[in-house]
Amino acid sequence: MARERLKGEEADLLTLLEPRDHVLVKETAGASGNLSELSDTGTKRFTHVAGPFDHYERTVHWERTDEGFRIDNSVRFKLAIPYWGW
What we know:
Blueprint: E1 2-8, H1 10-16, E2 26-29, E3 41-50, E4 53-65, E5 68-79
Antiparallel strand pairs: 1-5, 2-3, 3-4, 4-5
């Protein structure tokens, strides 16, 4: 698992709440409701549509603070490549 803990503004959070479409992974988001009005706390999960993974889940959890947002961005995955998959 990879974890990233950040402090940021609303724009930083909104960037993390977009599904990724990179060379390595293409994500899809679960049902999350309307993000145009961010709640003080929340969690959004993403799974993979394409990529070299047996399992992939990225979770973004946020809490509003006086300075902006405290953001926890974590990724759990298992590669589908046999040599690296043990």
